[in-house]
Amino acid sequence: MKIKISDICINVVVWIGGILVVIPFVWMIVSSFKTQGQIFQSPFTLLSRLNFHNYSSLFTQWPYLEWYRNSLLVAVVLTGLTVFFSSLAGYGFSKYQFKGKSWMFAIVIMSLSIPFQSILIPLYSEMAEMHIANSYVSLIIPFIAPPVGIFLMRQFIYSVPDELLDAGRIDGCSEFILYLRIVLPLLKPAMGALAIITFVSTWGNFLWPLVMLNDSSKFTLPLGLYSLLSDASNGGNAQYGQMLAGAALASVPPVVLFMFMQRAFVNGMTMGGVKDN
């Protein structure tokens, strides 16, 4: 069995890339158990013993559990709504014919090229006019039907045979029941991929919560961890150990979610590339 040089090069590049990604994560985990002075010690040293002071002070001096709860609430609700509305829109674009369909989908695709920063102020003004600023609703409503989710679902639903839908109509199913009982069960890989993408992007979102929220009791994790640093600018000391401990705990939900849904994510990203009818 011959080993190709190209395969060796690809494996080397993948391993190097993986190591470069893992090194900062390992540094964060190890440093979260160190004292403030040990964190910046040079050269970098591994732990001689575990020090849980950063973790205990994080929970006693800051409302970390409250930030965690807020982030989970927003991320879980937004992920569920995004999967539902994106699959519903993708089902309409892929299986129905209506006037202006091509133009509407073209607008959806073109919106992918618009930077979020360019619509930040108009979107904030809209939330303020609706009197939902400084609320969890304002963090959820603008993102429940993202263009990338609609595109992913549309491409995947093309693979659902029309004969299944026709058989359901013959049996007397309504259009929504067709979507709920026939289409959705076949979309598990695509829904898994979209769920991971949405959850991770929402979990780490900093800019939009920073603009929308001014009540510290509603802070999400990124804002809460930032407040540890901003406290130093007001005369306090920057608690880097607590920040690293908070970041280490914040990385748990996305990692666990990806571990349980890795297969669905890979299948969803590779099976949706079908040709348009």
From TrEMBL:
Q: Which InterPro entries match?
A: MetI-like (IPR000515), MetI-like_sf (IPR035906)
Pfam families this protein is in? BPD_transp_1
Which keywords does the record carry? Cell membrane, Membrane, Transmembrane, Transmembrane helix, Transport
Has keyword ATP-binding?
no
> What CDD domains is this protein classified in?
TM_PBP2
Give TM regions.
12-30, 72-91, 103-124, 136-157, 178-203, 240-261
Q: Identify the main location.
A: membrane
Bilayer topology annotation: Multi-pass membrane protein
Domain ABC transmembrane type-1, first and last residues per copy: 68-261
Q: Where does it live in the cell?
A: Cell membrane
The question of whether ATP-binding is a record keyword is answered with: no
Record's superkingdom? Answer: Bacteria
The family annotation for this protein states: Belongs to the binding-protein-dependent transport system permease family.
Annotated protein name in UniProt: Carbohydrate ABC transporter permease
What organism does the UniProt record list as the source?
A: Alicyclobacillus fastidiosus
